[in-house]
Amino acid sequence: MLNRRILRIKAFKVLYSYAEDQSMTLEEAESQLKESLEATRTLYLFMLDLIPALTEEARRRIKETSAKFNPTEEEKHPNMKFVENQVAPLLSEDPDFQKIISKRCLSWEQHDAFLRRLYDIVRTREYFIDYMNAPERSLKEDAALFRRIFEDELVDDEELERILEDMSLWWNDDLAYSLTWCCNAMKDFAAGKRWTLPELYKSDMVKAGHGNPKQKVDNDKDFVFKLLRTSYVNYGKYLKRIAEMVPDWDDNRLFVTDIELIVMGLSEAKAFPDMPLRVTINEYVEISKFYSTPKSRQFVNGLLDKLVKKLIEEGEIVKTVEN
């Protein structure tokens, strides 16, 4: 589920927390990383549980309108296609899904205002109107509808972002990635497969048969925890080397996020001799585009490249592969 880019970002955020509070122990940092990694999968579960919640909102609307004093013919005989979709029961009636949702204390019940607004938006969409007017009723069609909702309606929704921020500090920036897995689940449902909890690490997925069986797979869990440990242990030393390369230490130029990215880049270069240097540098340059300033890309690229080469010359970093 989690690829190397996401793993680097997760470790980077924990290292940032350590930079803000250096009383944090390595054990505490590793515990934070573990919690952060699992949180992405929890968010996937929460978003998947939106399906029965949204279906129930639609059912509630129909009950309200049919109970009016003088309902219209349309309100007396509503189109039940959406509320009778075949996807929602696959989750609401699945004991394993309900057990894990309950265990992780996930519920949409307190977010009824969001559900009402989302349903009001969805029901005006052309794809929803076409779905409701089509005579066909099938699991494949229902799954395609929810996949469209996941793809089109939830990313960049400010109200949803506030809900997620209040629920977990680890869910920041994880929504789009989790929604991708919700869409994958819809494809599985359409193919007649049962709901499953995906593997946490992409390497575990490949080993489980979701990929080329001949592909050599390095353990992603080992990678991210080794990256964090190396960054934590060498933080002070690498911070000093950065200061030496930027003697004026201009706060308007050097930001905390830049420092953490460079420290992590140096740590990755040290911890993984068989990782091409250019891959490491490119990864942290890419991350800087989203978590630092517009000038950070060039700064991180230049300083990280100079420091790694200097540490290779000194024997601090050893590389067994070419760039």
Summarize the structure.
By secondary structure, the protein is mainly alpha-helical. It is 67% helix and 0% strand.
Task: Give keywords.
323 residues, 17 helices, mainly alpha
Report on the structure:
This protein has 323 residues and is mainly alpha-helical. It has 17 helices and no strands. Helix 1 packs parallel to helix 13, helix 2 packs across helix 13 (220-233) and helix 14 packs across helix 15. The longest helix has 23 residues, at 26-48. The model has no long low-confidence stretch (mean pLDDT 91).
Which helices and strands appear, and what pairs or packs with what?
Blueprint: H1 4-20, H2 26-48, H3 50-66, H4 73-76, H5 88-92, H6 95-103, H7 112-122, H8 126-133, H9 139-152, H10 158-167, H11 175-190, H12 202-207, H13 220-233, H14 235-245, H15 256-271, H16 277-291, H17 296-314
Helix pairs in contact: 1-2, 1-13, 1-15, 2-11, 2-13, 3-7, 9-11, 13-15, 14-15, 15-16, 15-17, 16-17
